[in-house]
Amino acid sequence: MIPIGKEFYHLDSVDSTNNFAAKLINDQICQNSAVILADEQSAGKGQMGNTWESAAAANLLSSFVWKPDNLSVTDQSKISWMISLSVHKLLLRLGIDASIKWPNDIYVGSKKIAGILIENQLEGNHISWVIAGIGLNVNQCQFETTNATSVQLVTGTTFRIKTILNELTDIINGYLRQWNTIEDSLKSDYESLLYQKGQQAVFLDTHGEFEGEILGVQDDGRLQIKVSNELRFYSLKEIQFCSK
């Protein structure tokens, strides 16, 4: 596999780095792997149609694009786990211990520091392209929302965005190079970092609020929650985390 980052695009402004990546693929410009970095996004995308708030040139706004080697559609959860683990490992290198709020938001304590949006393109039963959008709050210190934080707020240090990007690219490439030996451990590694795992927490589903305990995830990525003596399984958009 060609290492991610052989093709590099640095944009002053774009609607979304994931949209830009999809256009590269559609126009057959991206041959195998690319990294897109934007200083500013006018319509950054998050999970479930949410937008991603970011001050211009203060944070990592990026997408990683590659063509997998014979990955099944059933491996989509593994891609998500690997990207989440990559961001967690990046933060550890910066001296920050974080957790993963299902499915793939990255939290420091009770505050969000990074978000991930993976948009795979499929051909039949295989993943033809992976587009992994990653937004990491790096040097921004003021947010409209109260539950956001940044690398600078946690560490007191200002970082060069390009340095952060290079570190993350190196980590993702490391996972991809070792894919055949690490893919079976991705699920357990991911579960060990789940936000609120093993704690009683409050959630919201179509029936209303309830208390339960996160046990882990299924192979298909669904969240597994124990409610009294009942096991429940939730896909994206079927459940929300609530503040206690």
Question: What would your notes on this structure say?
Answer:
By secondary structure, the chain is of the alpha+beta class. It folds into two domains: 7-191, BirA Bifunctional Protein, domain 2 (2-Layer Sandwich); 200-242, SH3 type barrels (Roll). Helix content is 25%, strand content 31%. The chain has helices at 17-26, 76-93, 151-155, 161-177, 179-182, 186-191; strands spanning 7-11, 33-38, 60-66, 99-101, 105-108, 111-118, 121-123, 126-136, 200-205, 208-217, 223-227, 230-234, 240-242. The strands form two sheets. Strands 1, 2, 3, 4, 5, 6, 7 and 8 form an eight-stranded mixed beta sheet that branches. A five-stranded antiparallel beta sheet has the order 12-11-10-9-13, with no helix packed on it. A hairpin with a 2-residue loop joins β7 (121-123) and β8. α2 crosses α4. The chain starts with 6 loop residues before the first strand and ends with a strand.
